[in-house]
Fold each of these.
Amino acid sequence: MIKKSTFLLAFFLVAGHFLGQAQHSIARQWNEKVLEAISGDFARPTVHARNLFHTSVAMYDAWAVYSGTADTYLLGKTVHGFKSSLAVVPHATDVNAAQEAAISYAVYRLMKHRFVKSPRAELLFEDLDYFMISLGYDPNYTSTNYACGPAAMGNYIAQTIIEYGLQDGSNEADTYKSKYYAPVNPPMPVADTGNVTVVDLNRWQPLQIAQIIDQSGNPIPGNTQSFLSPEWGNVLPSLQPSDATIYNRDGHDYIVYHDPGPPALLDTSAIGAESEEFKWNHELVSVWSSHLDPTDGVMWDVSPAAIGNNQSYPTDFAGYQNFYDLEGGGDNSTGRPLNPKTGQPYAPQIVPRGDYARVLAEFWADGPASVTPPGHWFEILNYVNDQPSFERKWHGQGPVLPALEWDVKSYFALGGAMHDVAITAWGIKGWYDSSRPVTALRGMAELGQSSDPLLPNYHPGGLTLIPGFVELIQPGDTLQGQQGEYIGEVKLLAWRGPNYISNPTIDEAGVGWIRAKFWWSYQRPTFVTPPFAGFISGHSTYSRAAAELLTSLTGDEYFPGGMGVFNCPKDQYLIFEDGPSEGLTLQWATYRDASDQCSLSRIWGGIHPPMDDIPGRLIGMEIGPAALAFAEQYFTKTDTTTTFVSGFNLYPNPANCLVQVEYKHEGLLPVDIYATDGRLVKSTSLDFSDNRALLDLMDLNSGMYVVVGRDGKEGKRVFEEKVVRY
């Protein structure tokens, strides 16, 4: 039986995602190599958002420096105090060939650096070497003397980004480890019943799992989670938002961008409005867990005719209660009657709610060969680019751009957005340090029920009883225990968990009444929940930022043709249990619809309550357009007129092949080259264009020489400089 892992390599296959390298730009080909590398690396959304941005910068700068029309971002610039030198601007006879070579060497070198500790590094590097050779490039060429040509320029760009990355606050040099964050809660052994170890139900709690396997399928040493990137707010962003707030805890700074304020907090000593909000948010996750059964008879139309098209989002608790359907699931979106691209109604797609919810949870979780959420949106961008009806017009206007120009610009913009989301969302996660549903639900279940002081097991911090979903175990209940020891405990109608699955290819856990102390998220038992705080949802923030950016840069809120699709075959898609029971197709009219669907998937997956979701969507709505505007400022070249020192300049020096000569001159200029003992060893003429010319040293032996430029009828010396040939 073919399971989901087979289909990950065929993402959006129905639309012809793999059309062959010949039809894709060199930037697209390298982007797919980056995505493949991410899928084989440890699942670290922050680290890979940074990798996607930096490889996109490498491609963009390699393209821009030869374009003659665009400005570079990092190359030859000062960014966040880091200065990149570019003494001479290169010229190329074949601009496209130069761009392709520079892009290839830049991304190749950067990937060899960034993925050196990947668990699949050996196989990855063999593939990258083979790919370089197949493109006609020598992977062993390592010169960074960019005056020697595009290959060296690519190497130099990679080296520049590597050096920048070693001082950008990510702590890359020490494998991105946190420097000072420490959890306040002891670990919770998830295989045990309840949560007796928790100290503060409002703070993040690491899980203790017999064998931890991350979302990319990599075994993780040890059996206790470590918080991923709690100090990522300290990483230098691609944007510089003015609304950064610096907090301090235990003498250490936490930088928070787009600060949403704290989530609702649980008061375990008294009933209060905020405490009830906390309970409602987490119990909604539990109630939605009861939807994960395709045999419950609930059928939904999951086409764009019935779902999507949200026009607004809540900003307070009352709004949350109206936006989400607590018992039925989903939100209050209305759908769209017509496809505006075809003028025809969207065809209904009636499927079991249990199949739809389970597929959503796995599709947007993107495991077990995860390209992480930012990579997922690069895949979606590539899917859009492959649609026959799509035109590469920036903002949907003007001329159709060449594939390479479109790709480097759109990757640069999307990468910047994803990088800023990582910095923003994880800065918020690290500071507010909120719990996950598995911690909160099991912890509240330990306390009891908070609905009625006259009923058994009352505690103000306990779960709120919801008839049909959250109840007390009564005498005679199958959950009462052999001696009735569980009578009076809280029980939940929920997905029953991994203990009911022996063979994932044929078994389903199903939904039933369980002891609330043994609630499970709808995830693999080796994963359970991501190793970082919940508030705010990274998926919601990444997705909404990307959706807003794609809407703007394509000039159309709709997917090409009015609908994006992904097929999920019957009994072949789900990983940790069998399903779906019927084949279904995920469908989105707009990029925002896809984003909203992603957000809901995390609730059905047991990963986030609504209070994690909505702030992420709202922040993403700010980051996406800002990131696009930031990228676009580089698309038009600014005045970079060089002021010559003493009238001329030579670069690089020392050199091993070509030296660029800068001098205020146009046309031919005679040049003599002398050995240090005064012997004339070479005479030539340099052809100056835009006050620049290239001097070839290839026919000289290693050593020091004196370069003399002559002008005028009498051949007077106009410049003289020593140069070293190595």
Amino acid sequence: MQLYYRISFLLSFILLQTWGLAWAQTAKGVFDLRNWDFAKQGTVQLDTEWEFYYQGFLMGWQFDTLSRKTYLAVPSASWSDGQWRGKPISGFGYATYRLKVYLPPKHDKLLGIRCLDQSTAYQIFINKDLVYQVGKIGTLKKSMIPSPEVGIFYFEPKSDSLDIVIQISNFYHRKGGLWNSIQLGTFSQIRQTREYSVAITVFLSGSLILMAIYHLVLFLYRRQEPSVLYFSILCLIVPIRLLFTNENYILDLFPNMPWLFKYRIEYISFFLIPAFIFSFLHSIFPYEIPKSITRGIQIICWAVVLITLITEADIFAYSIFIFHPMAFFAIIVIFYGLIWAIIRKREGAKTFAVGSFFLAISTINDVLHASAYVNTAYLIPVGFFIFFFSQAVLIASRFSKAFVQVATLKDRLSLSNQSLEQNVHERTRQLQEANEELSSRQEKLNETVTSLNNALNTVNTQKKELEEIHKDLTASVDAAKKIQEATLPRLRDIQKALPDSFILFRPKDVVSGDFYWFSQIDYTTIIIAADCTGHGIPGAFMSLIGNDLLDEIIDIRNIVTPSEILNELRSGIKKVLRQEETNGQDGMDIAVCAITRKPYETTILEYAGSYNPLIYVQNNELNHIKADKLIVGGFKNYVDQPEGFHNHTIIVDSPISFYIFSDGFQDQFGGERKKKFMASRFHDTLFSMHHLPANEQKIALEQTLDAWMQASHQSQIDDILVIGVKI
């Protein structure tokens, strides 16, 4: 440790001499400031090797009588880093430090000294005069009183040299001695340093507390987002630590706070930070920040918190040796997870990485500072402020996007209402024109007034009936839409099992004959795209039948092989629609995919289809598996082709993107020649975008479809469904 300080002094001296600045000349026990200018160069830290005497309270003149002198670097993690007459020193005990300081010829009449928290009680003499005391020193534990107070005092030097003697004792903490630098300067400089440091403390604390309150309110309104709660707790823990460290501003608010209580809070706040950071990051990136590591770090953090609560400072202070390696390990895990999140293009991953970088730098600094390897300051609050600010921006962005989506839905609903109102106005206008025509005839043919009035009454009655019928039909269709939407699987459930997937679903009418289905059975994920006979209300009824049959076949009967699913579905539709009796031909075209992912085994993709093929891209090559020319449904079809469906298996030994769909996209008219999009163009479109993330693939498909229809002002002719999955 002494070697570290000597190297740091040498480097600082060379650097300042290169700049051409006057430098304080130091030697063992001496600090020469005769070439120092406080007005130009500011305050100075008395960091050098002080004369040191262990297990004794001496005055300055008594050091001059010693035949053998010992020196110890200030600051140091503990006086146990040095030796006393060739023997190791315990962290407990009492000692005296002495430094001779030569002042510049011209200096202010009033100087000041700023001495941050030391271990654990001390008194300062300058030129034999007692000028400041923190706590009560003693030669035994029962005779001393520890104090966490920050020492700031002012004095008038009576000569051009200072004989600074610090008598210090420690029987409460594992480390004894002068932990922090002692700063010397003019009255105004020391005061400004203190005020500036306190201002920064209050600003950072206030900002983080406001963030904590704001995000707590957000969580109370939307409790489905636990990450917001963890973020709020972090924003509260960090200012608590800030108030209890560095300037110990908490003592300005509560000057009689016990020394042990202050140190418990300081350590507990430090131990809790990694626990809630990992909870926060795991809730945002569950696949990149492992749950097992998160639980392990939480257990370690709460264990050392418990040790801190039930033991004395000389015991719980050793828990830092467990915590420091864990903190470095946590930083590695966080950056490893964030790198994967960036590679997988998770939302906000880059913002997290930037904020985490500053947090990691400040954490490493604080660990090294607490161990006295660097003589800087506690920077975790600043690192957390940058980290929290970046996360606050990200959370605000997420909520903003949610508000934009709500506004978009509101606009769409408003446009729908306007269209409905226009239809009603048009019908009303037509009826008004009829009424005007009838009134004109009434004036010309007075003899038919009675009959015309009756006719007018009849028309008005019919108008009301038509309006009621229209209202009932609209309500019924809207209700049917809600029912159909309720039967469709939730997109977030699908993307939880298949994170890199999308669904493009565009019904031609309010309700759709196309539908999609999803389920997770043990290690197998099943995704289905179906196109029922017809569209609109008839197709919607057929989709409900298909959805119920799939629930029974897969979720209840646990049939997961695609060909068996289609055979059972075919038999079920024939039975439900009584097609053997009615000779009905209604049914559906359908594609079924089953992804089986067992631990330590290769992933398998199985497919079976009725008229709806499977398109997949593997090793940058487009592959096409044709569907069976066998419709699901239709009694005649069931009799003519009883053999059933074929199952296809694909070994997923490299990344694969696959697509299942109805025929609505490729049959859509458009382009400059008003022709169909066609299957070949559709397959080329899928291949050209397979390398994109799922959400960008969906946007690309929508833009392609809209451009195709708008080129010749075509309207949608059929329901459209496209499902894409990347494994």
Amino acid sequence: MQTNRQQLSPDTVLGNRYRVIRPLGQGGMAHVYLAEDTETGNYVALKIMRDELSDDPEFIRRFATEARAAASLDHPNIVAVLDYGQDGQIRYIVQEYVKGKTLKELIQEQGALDYRLAVPLMIQIGLALEHAHKRGVIHRDIKPQNVMITSDMVAKVTDFGIARTTNANTITLTGGIAFGSVHYFSPEQARGGYVTERSDIYSLGIVLYEALTGELPFDGDSSVAVAIKQLQEMPDPPSKYISSLPKALDDIVFKTIQKSPANRYGSASEFVQELDAFMKNPNGHYGIINNSNQSITTSSALGAQNQSSTNYDKIYEVENSINKSKRSKVRDTTFSIIIVILALALLIAGFAYLYNRFINNDKEENIVFALEDYRGRDIENVTDELIKKYGLELNTDIIVEWENNDVETGNIFDQNPEAQYKFTKGKDKLTFKVSAGTETNTVPNVYNMTRKEAEQTLLDAGYNVVIMEENSSDIDPDHVIRTVPMAGNTLPLEEKVYVYIASAISTTDTNVMVPDIVGYKWGDALSLLNQAGLKIGAASPIGTSVAETDRIIIIQTPVEFSEVKSGSSVSVTYGNAQEYSDYMNPTESTTKANVNMPNLVGTTWDQALNQMQSWGSASPSQISVQYISEESRSQAYHQTNPQDCYILEQSISAGSQLDSSMELVCVLGTYQDYLNMTTPTTTPTTAPTNADIDPNTSNAN
């Protein structure tokens, strides 16, 4: 007798850990529930395989594929898979709980989206696909229903239920049904052909078309009719529906949905870079297709499909009749084209051999060049030039040391080796001494001061202040426990000093709902939190420090309307009215693209994550962590004890302009590791937090 296993009642516990709260919805493969992780107290989304599929080996394999594929991914624009397993006959996946709506729902509510909103969302989805593709995972079912949009317009890709690693061979289920959704899948998926990363890019192009116009580019009375259009037709340009759209967007969309994968963007990264360039200059030339051969080719993989499939028979017959008339025209010129191609191939191969033999010999392995005299130049300009021109890496090939000097702040006043030295990448190190200026001070001792006294003292000393809260039984509530850097350290003016304030220890376990405080002034936000039985936690400025009377809340964690224990802390990122407006306006924040890398050294992992939320599309494509020692990892693991895990080194120099092509590596350790680093046996001549030191993801894994 078939049981209804996936219809779980509230308080059902799976895996001795996940307590079901209520249903959230259902998809083609699974029912989704809101659940509580009883070990951490966090809310999660629990996906349970549908009963009618639980005995089908192919669907069981797909369900396991989703778990493995998504669990290997760790990116702020991908819904994180936290766990997966089986409890009796129930197979489940545990995901990050994302509060928001799908992109499909957003389009249905608003119709055509303003391109200044749609394009930044596509950039985020593209970054998610870039991350997945680098790890060998193709999504195969990109559609608006599989993209969650949070209240602050962060896109998160979900549902890797038909994802497959790139070394897999087959793309069909039993009976020849193609993976993917017919309105969004690529021509090669319609044919049952080989699917690559460019198939995801095609689907994303269809999503972009729908977001810009509110309409699907291909529609019909049946799935077969839609599939045939995917194979043979090109839609009207988006600007036909929305006349105000820049023509450049038509070109970008059409390149993305080319029938031939070779004519599309080569990678998700290339697609993202083009969209980013478009947002900076909408009047530029984009979507250029280098391959002039626009013909639509058919895949021999179609004939390999199970011919018992009625849908595939229809597609095959229609496509075969259309292409039959083309073959006679093509046949006469095929032979001469083959000869030309072979001749060109031989010519190119010969040129490549000569180039590699005499010009490019060992270029990648041994990059050698003569150093210039970089003294007097800005450190950011010099490092950017060396990175782009020779592929050098900060804190590996280039070492930056900041020192007090009367030279203009940020300028190089000494270098080692000297100019004309023959520098070898991977063997030599280039050390720059950079002026920190003369505007420095010593961090004052604010131990046991009240919050307001400490903040004012540090502001008077010329520093920006970040208030943090933590429990303490030794210090009175609202008094300073410690600062990072510690008192007595030399630090340039306007650097951040983290002030840890003792908070009252809550003794109640009552659950309360987190109020929405984004957009509220500081005092009003504190009142709302106080009324809800909560308190302010980590408070970081999105830019420079702002006086309390001028502060507006920009980001809050946990998000609004989530349930937490009474007395819990709510972390916030704040700014002034203009910074709030800039952050909430996707167009301005994307166009400006002037996010500079902050100095994270000395901050805890949870503080760093709070800052990373404000980077938006400028966020590095990969954020990973290393530990200074295995002992430190066991004492302060960033996933379980983020408040005790300190950043000791970072691979991107403070002050460098961030963009999505970068990768950020952070070296982590305990507070004692940080003290050992910042308090050497001799008095340091430079502020430890200004050193650019070479150091998992921004989704906190």
Amino acid sequence: MVPSAPAVSSGAPGAVSIIGWMAATDAQADAPGPTVVVRLPDGALKHLPTGSTGADLAAALGPGLAQEAVAVVVDGQVQDLGAPLPTGASASVVTAGTPEGRAILRHSTAHVMAQAVTRLWPGAKYAIGPAIEDGFYYDFELPGGDHFNEADLARIEAKMREIIAEDQPFVREEHGAHEGLALFADQPYKREIIEGVDASEGAGGGVVSVYRNGDSFVDLCRGPHVPSTGRLGHFRLTKLAAAYWRGDERRPQLQRVYGTAWESEAALRSYLARLAEAERRDHRRLGLELDLFHFPPEIGSGLPVFHPKGGMVRKLMEDYSRREHERAGYQFVFTPHLTKSTLLETSGHLEWYAENMYPPMEMEGATYYPKPMNCPMHILIYKSRQRSYRELPMRLFELGTVYRFERSGVLNGLLRVRGLTQDDSHIFCARDQLDDELASLLQFVLRVLRRFGLDELEAELSTRPDKFIGSVEEWDRATESLRAALAASGIGYTVAEGEGAFYAPKIDVHVRDAIGRRWQVSTIQVDFQEPQRFGMEYVGPDNARHQPYMVHRALFGSVERFFAILLEHYAGALPTWLAPLQVRVLPVRDDHVAYARSVAGRFEAAGFRAEAGAADEPLGARVRRAKLEKIPYVLVVGDDDVAAGTVGANLRGQERPERGARVEEVLARLAAEVAEPGGRGPGGPGGAGPGGAEGAP
């Protein structure tokens, strides 16, 4: 009797968890004759007839799994379900609803899109079409200089559905590079990729893999893919964009078609709902609607200006950051916006980072650059005199503006700008201080993020890459210190093996916003390179000279980007302590204006941002406008309020307004709200609101 089929584990994406299966499967007699034996994720062995494939394995494990399977992992390598299984291999089935499975669905759907485009526009050139987070894209060059328009997305979708209905098999082939060049004789972008593969393989030439499906459509691809186009269908094309070939503005500009694909219609609908909500929360739209900032074309792309309301939000963010850093023992420094090229030569930025820097300017026989980073100047502050071990750890902090010439194709509102202000810290410490410093630093970072209401936190530890500088011992010491800091923090983290920069390991802290999106914000990085390049030293207790450890840390990442993340997280309704205007008092008629001003004055005297409105249009319209501006406290005053010293309170998020609320009660409620533990932060323009700075959460 065959044991019941295993379930799919949600704990290990893409792997089959064998529940209730015992090692006794060794003795199964359901596969007479020669067999292939594979080891399943739980260690059990499965016997299959010789020549069995990943699809056969999935079918042997259960009909439900066979229906959900899209690929198989064999000894750590993902391959097509139709590929034969080698005996003795470890194997697990990849299902459609896992991250790995969704990537395969999306990549296969991208192929179908390219096939649809070539049917609709014979002679179209297709470049690359990878799966990306939540979707896929493909880059095209249409014949005769033609271009897609928004209406074409529906045409392409319809043609894709025809191809899916044809249930065409995806068939893998391998060719020598020269055969591949002939196969893609009319596809210059594919030929360029093949030529690169061929050159990298040397005199022997390379081998390239392709996938065919349907009416002779063939695409250059490593794979794997779903078995056939009929396994697809839950997709939507979402937008068009321009993209330079290989991201180089000197190369041809192509058109990029974006889409999304999922394992079920329900998953697709859920994603589209999240997408619509993300559009509603788009910080660029909210920035204009709430009069916070904009990007004047007269200044240039990627260079925002902040209006008074946006400027107030920035001030509150920055003031709060300064107070917290001062409490944590940081010293404030200020550095210029320009530097000579020689500093950037010493730091290595001209060697490693020049393509992201603004071009130089020549003045008085020297070459100057707008600074791309604050760290070289902080190092010069450290080196301005001899340092003693008694001064360590030295924690330098600056809200420093830097300039990076991001390519126009990657600019994205405040999330990616060319002039950005970093809440930048550089910590110099002795070797025996590193563990404690990293642990306390990470706790500080998490505490500040939580005070902005960002509670869903996780991290990624990036470790030593194949090519690195410094000693293995240094790397291991720094990596273990970072790992220990993460363990002590209590937040979940993953390890990105080999993903550290060549000069140092790092921690990246990520937050999830109100609609589940993941944002990378803070970075903590241990640096071996710069102390060596600058010859940094301190005199130890042994009177000998030692090289300090250097830790880079940006908490917000940049003020601009963090501003955008908060704006989208809160859909523009920033926490009351962070709202540019906290209270608006609306008089019902002109004869109530004086009382409205006196009420607003009481809130201002208590340290809150308040104003009295005019009675220049119907009250309902004024209340609606205040709510659209997302003002937390909208207070209305009429005859009864003037007589009784009360207000009508329309509080943000409240279903019904309150009538006859005493002013001192509303004041106390506001003070309590801005001092609420768990993420609200300090309140008034001086920072803390009533009760002083220690009342902040």
